[in-house]
Amino acid sequence: MNVQALTDKAAGGLADDIDHRASLKKLIVFFESISLEACQDLSAVYTEDAYFKDPFNELRGIAAINHVFQHMFAQVHDPSFRITSTVLEGDNAFLCWDFLFTMKHFHTNQQCIRGSTHIRFDDDGRVNFHRDYWDAAEELYEKLPLLGSLMRMLKWIARK
């Protein structure tokens, strides 16, 4: 094996040779126009064995990812994502986003969770790795009626 072949293999094979700009654009359109109907068949977006992790879930497989999206629609009204910035390098992408929604059981005011996602694209342009980063304590728990009061009090005590 020559040096270039070893370098390509160490860098993940052909991943750096594939232009994933179209894949990233397609993913942004998916998230910014997300709907219950669009989440019925995620096979155009995720690979069959895609890995998914957020503050509440760590799972693998398109059926499990579908369940996460179905659960989101069951818990909140009018969920939508606004992608605020992206970075793409090779097969890796990083998206910053605002997740907008209203809670079904608590507030009727629109809520916003700010977070980011690390994505890795497969050679066919579908997502095979999805890792969300957001602070569940600050972005969600503080907005819940009883738990929110406790979280704000703990934050206040910690600052003293």
Would you write up a description of this structure?
It is a single chain. The protein has 160 residues and is α+β, with helices and mostly antiparallel strands. The protein is 33% helix and 35% strand. The chain is built from five helices and six strands; from the N terminus they run ααββαββββαα. The chain has helices at 3-10, 21-32, 62-75, 136-139, 145-159, and strands at 46-53, 58-60, 76-89, 92-103, 110-121, 127-133.
Question: What can be said about this structure in brief?
Answer:
With 160 residues, this protein is α+β, with helices and mostly antiparallel strands. Helices cover 33% and strands 35% of the residues.
Please tally the β strands and state the result.
6
- Radius of gyration from the alpha-carbon trace, in angstroms: 18 Å
In percent, how helical is the residue content? Answer: 25-40%
- Spatial order of the strands forming the largest sheet: 2-1-6-5-4-3
Q: What's the N-to-C terminus distance?
A: 61 Å
Helix count equals 5
The arrangement of helices and strands along the chain is: HHEEHEEEEHH
Question: What's the SSE blueprint?
Answer:
Elements (H helix, E strand, L loop, with lengths): L2 H8 L10 H12 L13 E8 L4 E3 L1 H14 E14 L2 E12 L6 E12 L5 E7 L2 H4 L5 H15 L1
Parallel strand pairs: 1-6
Antiparallel strand pairs: 1-2, 3-4, 4-5, 5-6
Comma- or semicolon-separated keywords:
5 helices; disordered N terminus; 160 residues; six-stranded mixed beta sheet; alpha+beta
